[in-house]
What does this fold into?
Amino acid sequence: MTNVTGAGAAGQPASAVSPSPGAEPPAREPPPRSRRGSLLSREMLRERVLGLREGSIIVVTLVVAIYFAVNTSSFATSTNFKTLLPYFAPFAILGAGEVFVMILGEIDLSIGGTYLLAPYLFYKIATAGLPLVPSVLIALVACMAVGLINGFFVAIVGISSFVTTLGMLFALEGLTLIISHGTPVATPGAQVHATTHQVTHVVNGVHIQLPETVNHISTFAKVFGGGVYSELVWALMIVIVLQTVLTFTRWGLYTVAVGSNKLGAAEAGVRVRLVTVRNFILCATMGGLVGILEAVRSGTVQPDTAGANEILFYGIAAAVIGGTLLAGGSGTVVGALIGALFLGILHDGLTLQGVNANYLLFYLGLAIIVAMTVNIYVQRARRGAGSG
Amino acid sequence: MSDDVLRVEHISKRFGPVTALRDISLHLRRGEVLGLLGDNGAGKSTLIKIISGFQRQDSGEMFLHGRPYAPKSVDDARAKGIDTVYQDLALIDELSVYHNMFLRRERVHRPLPFLANREMKQQARSALDEIGINIPRIDVATARLSGGQRQAIAVARTVNGDADIILLDEPLAAMGAKEGSMILDLVARLKEEGRVSIIMILHNYVHVLQACDRVSMIQEGVIALDKPTAETSVEELTDIVVNEYRRAREAAHAE
It folds into this structure.
């Protein structure tokens, strides 16, 4: 039960100030015990899961996963898992960056732009002669500059973030078309070499030599998106690091403070403009990173603005479905990961079921609305239950 | 004089054609609770903002513990021991009670940048207990607390931040009688401990006489009254205001 006026938490006497100084603090309420007396009773577990901000989206995603696993035999296989990864790892990374901006009550649409531009910058710098990894780093630094500009216009000039980042999105996409002349190019360092060698097999007691072809990619490519699990590892690492920053550092604390009460935070001494700019830099860089990973994975750098715009929406959707409020004030990076997983499972599962490509988008849209509705109702139930 | 922790002398402040403060001089003694009165728009909040470093005065000087005091910012004033509880409390609803109390002064696990939550929780709990504020759970979001508890936390934050002069801007606004008296009890307890000196902006004369050692009233940009509360009364305070009102009405009729 929530009792916002007067009594503070669960049934304590309504006094803000006790009559005598040094009075003993009231005993902590013991956790509710079920009739069975065990702490891991079904009620406790349900309260714990729902108590998590991510609880509702975890439940929704599990439901969807189980549905596909049951209905489609090819879903719950390791091959399919590998197919699923590129459907969700990029969105998880983009969503993670967006969470930091959205908690502030802002939004960053320009991640589509850094997604498109960063691999081209990488290409230009690498073909100009610089080694691969420094080229990636310089491209990412350019994305940080984009974030700085976004943050400048939002926090200092005072233009709404939607408008600022929309303008930046178009500008960056246009810039990419200009410098690329609209032509796709091969991603530096991502070329696949095939080597063929003779392998001896024993068939019916006879030794035969058969040629076998193996595809090699460079270590650089393996690390930066080309390896099968590369994007997944990046996504997990980034989600862990960013969730830790959000929950356990001052960066995260001040982000929530500014998003929850900008004026109050400023009065308390939080450097609001610094916090804002910092988060835009982070988000833009995530966009660029995903762009480079995808370019390495596919082997081509493509000036595909439609694809960039689509991926930008998926990234934002992952963050929102995962529990970060568009209005700001609270958010979760782990939730964005699960939101991305939800989107990926849906996309992948429907494709496996042989759903007509035309219907795919329609079902995806419906599923998102249904998932958000369930999310909201679970959150309301959670608030009503009064858990901390 | 040597007992003054804060002295402001001949402060003036104008905002364009409007003169908020003409010639304000007042002082605050160590361990004292000073009530600041004045009509709406009399300039009380402006004076508080100048003392707290939020604004700079046009002319006049301030002295803190006898030394010249000219804060460059709110942070600067805070570093020098002057902290303010604004009317909107500056609390972050989404954050826990203890995070609010430590805002901008968080403890971290040096050299790593991670918040030392357990340590802050313990210190917040003992700080609240010490000044006698009863808040059962300090790890809940501040949004869940009552108005009185929120005000108490906002005050506790300044004490926790080692402020020795606390400015309270209308702490009893929008508060019922019961919660209001709890805040006044808190102020009394802080005074008893002798660690802080307090300036409070209040509107209710009964509260002023009950909670403050001295009262200063701002009227027409100057201090119209500066007396120990023991030497004045609700009638005297009311008379000054009523006379001002009469004068204003006559001036309006004369036009």
Residues 120 and 188 of chain B are 26 Å apart (CA to CA). Chain B has one domain: 4-254. The helical segments of chain B are 44-51, 74-79, 97-101, 117-130, 147-160, 177-193, 205-211, 234-254.
